[in-house]
Design a protein that fits this description.
The complex is a heterodimer. By secondary structure, chain A is an all-alpha fold. Chain A is globular, with a radius of gyration of 24 Å. Chain B has two domains: 48 residues, no CATH class; 223 residues, MetI-like (MetI-like fold, Orthogonal Bundle). Chain B is 71% helix and 1% strand. Chain B is globular, with a radius of gyration of 25 Å. The chains are: A mainly alpha, B mainly alpha. At the A-B interface, helix 2, helix 3, helix 4, helix 5 and helix 6 of A face helix 2, helix 4, helix 5, helix 6 and helix 8 of B.
């Protein structure tokens, strides 16, 4: 034991000790503020700066809790509706796109892929403003509001399933569906009964990522929001964070944190479980 | 059809229209909601403005575009002391400082997970990428709570004798330092991942070879590790700075004053007021400034994908 400590003290890799300190400081720096914010959603009083004992009144009970305050409740419902619909649109479109890109090489597919990746790295404010002006000027029949939010966000989020599913397709290879068709399956059957089950973990992971990213999305949701009825949780946090918010705002933020953490954790477990056999074989 | 023949090598069993039809819905969605909106931006920036109501009337025919207003905005940016110029300068300073900070913080962290985390590697990776799915707004809200005049940051500084309790530091009243730290805090996870990607791929045998040949720790790092991680550094800088250039919410939340306004703030406030045409021009200028790093990044990722596919 003593020898270990001595060896550690005279460690020639002294850099590692410094790195451990940096790493632990970094984790504290990134996660501690969030932990404090979650803690204060359980505060006994209205204060966000001094701790006054444990209470769940900001979740339900108090008249300005998440459950009772109409603005907070509406933002929660609106965020869930928006993210759900975005998942329903973006994931199937993205999965189809990834399948097509992997199996079909032509000039048009290269251009489409470039466009998809370009949309993904364009600063969001440019996309948000472009979509806002599009829905005001050209597609004024639709206008801004919930419909525009669903359309704009589902376009922006398509890149996630494309990236995740393409990575999975690369590791599967094309032998399975060719074998299926050698054995007499039609292209549609090979796709539905062989390829899609193999892609299940990637599709499930895409659902989780798109949902978590949509529920946290701010810029596009805000640019395309029409009024208070289309405010999502990030928009509400943005507009009230500087105006003396109550712990109920922290409670709302903590609920989204819980939702996305659970979803990502479940997706990670599902992905690992379904690909475990393959990793063992490899 | 040449294209149908070309797809024969892969999936010869499928009819040639089969796979392209899978890409069609997403491509239509992109054309409708990405390409067309940017065409509307062009049509407004180079279009006309109603002289009385100041409402924009977009011109969709490129042959009738008027570049005068766009040139006016450009010359405003180069005119000393204008709010446009100061917003561009703020943006440049904040983004450069915050990106440098991200690199200084991110590199040792990525190096640590790649080389020294040992059995705790997965745990540390999870802790490091946790901020990815913690809402950005929640993380900013957390700091707003901590940075209040009577918040924990001032209390800790006061406890250490670094701040005076009677005159608390006003962190949230237009301090550039708060914005820079906030941006670095918000985007640093995006720096760690590409750096970890390259550092993890450097075989330890390469480093051992350098040590065997007589290089010290510092020399090994400077002449082997650092050059080998150049791609990751560049990718990290781009992936972190691109969204920062368009960020407007961090500034509003953590400073909120006119003299810390960034390009994003200028764009959003122009669009919401009667200066829609100016806003559209500013979006175009922002994209022109960023197009080279964007294309470089796309090319680099395309190359990396090809390598994996092979």
């Amino acid at each position: 034991m003593t020898r270990g400590v001595l060896a550690w003290l005279s460690n020639p890799w002294a850099r590692a000790r410094f790195l451990w300190a940096v790493a632990i400081a970094y984790v504290a720096w990134t996660l501690l503020p969030v932990f404090v914010a979650v803690l204060f959603s359980f505060n006994g009083t209205r204060s966000l700066t001094s701790w006054q004992g444990l209470s769940t009144q900001w979740y339900a009970g108090n008249e300005s809790s998440v459950w009772h305050d109409p603005a907070l409740r509406s933002a929660l419902v609106q965020s869930l509706k928006l993210s759900g619909l975005v998942v329903l649109i973006a994931v199937p479109l993205g999965v189809g796109f990834a399948l097509a890109l992997d199996r079909w090489r032509g000039r048009a597919s290269g251009t489409a892929n470039f466009l998809m990746l370009f949309s993904f790295i364009t600063p969001e404010v440019a996309i948000g403003v472009a979509l806002f002006l599009f829905f005001i000027q050209l597609a004024s029949g639709i206008g801004t509001g919930f419909g525009a939010q669903v359309m704009g966000l589902s376009m922006y989020m398509m890149a996630y399933p494309v990236i995740v599913v393409r990575a999975r397709l690369l590791s599967i290879g094309k032998e399975y569906e060719e074998a299926a068709m050698d054995l007499g399956a039609s292209p549609t059957q090979a796709l539905r009964r062989v390829l899609l089950p193999l892609l299940f973990p990637a599709i499930f992971a895409s659902v989780a990522i798109v949902f978590a990213a949509s529920i946290d999305n701010f810029v596009i949701s805000q640019q395309l929001s029409r009024d208070a009825s289309t405010q999502t949780i990030p928009i509400l946090i943005y507009s009230s964070a500087r105006r003396g918010p109550l712990p109920s705002l922290n409670a709302l933020a903590s609920l989204t944190l819980l939702a996305s953490t659970t979803l990502i954790a479940v997706a990670a477990v599902v992905y690992r479980r379904f690909t475990r056999a393959e990793r063992r074989a490899a | 059809m040449p294209e149908g023949a070309g797809s024969g090598s892969r999936g010869a069993w499928f009819p040639s229209w089969f796979w392209p039809s899978f890409a069609a819905p997403a491509t239509i969605w992109l054309l409708l909601l990405f390409v067309l909106p940017f065409f509307v931006i062009l049509a407004i920036a180079f279009g006309r403005v109603d002289p009385i109501f100041l409402t924009p009337s977009p011109v969709y025919n490129p042959l009738r575009w008027d570049f005068g207003p766009f040139r006016d905005v450009l010359s405003q940016i180069f005119a000393g002391g204008s709010i446009y110029q100061s917003a561009f300068l703020h943006t440049l300073t904040f983004v450069l400082a915050a990106t440098a900070l991200c690199l200084v913080i991110g590199y040792p962290i990525a190096y640590f997970i790649a080389r020294h985390a040992g059995r705790l590697r997965t745990l540390f990776l999870v802790a490091f990428i946790a901020p990815f799915w913690i809402s950005y707004m929640m993380r900013m809200l957390a700091w707003i709570n901590l940075l209040q005049p009577n918040g924990y940051v001032n209390r800790i500084l006061g406890g250490l004798g670094l701040a005076n309790a009677d005159a608390p530091i006003q962190w949230l009243n237009g301090k550039p330092l708060t914005v820079i730290l906030g941006l670095a805090y918000g985007y640093v996870p995006f720096m760690i991942l590409p750096l970890f990607g390259v550092l993890d791929r450097i075989p330890s045998s390469t480093l051992e070879a350098a040590r065997d040949l007589g290089a010290g720790q510092v020399t090994t790092f400077l002449r082997v590790t650092l050059p080998l991680s150049r791609q990751g550094i560049l990718a990290g800088i781009i992936i972190v700075s691109l969204p920062m250039f368009g960020d407007y919410f961090t500034q509003t939340l953590l400073a909120g004053t006119r003299n810390t306004a960034m390009i994003g703030n200028l764009i959003v406030s122009s669009i919401q007021s009667s200066l829609v045409q100016t806003g559209a021009s500013l979006v175009l200028i922002l994209l022109v400034l960023l197009i080279l790093p964007m294309l470089y990044y796309l090319r680099a990722t395309a190359k990396a994908t090809e390598l994996v596919a092979r």
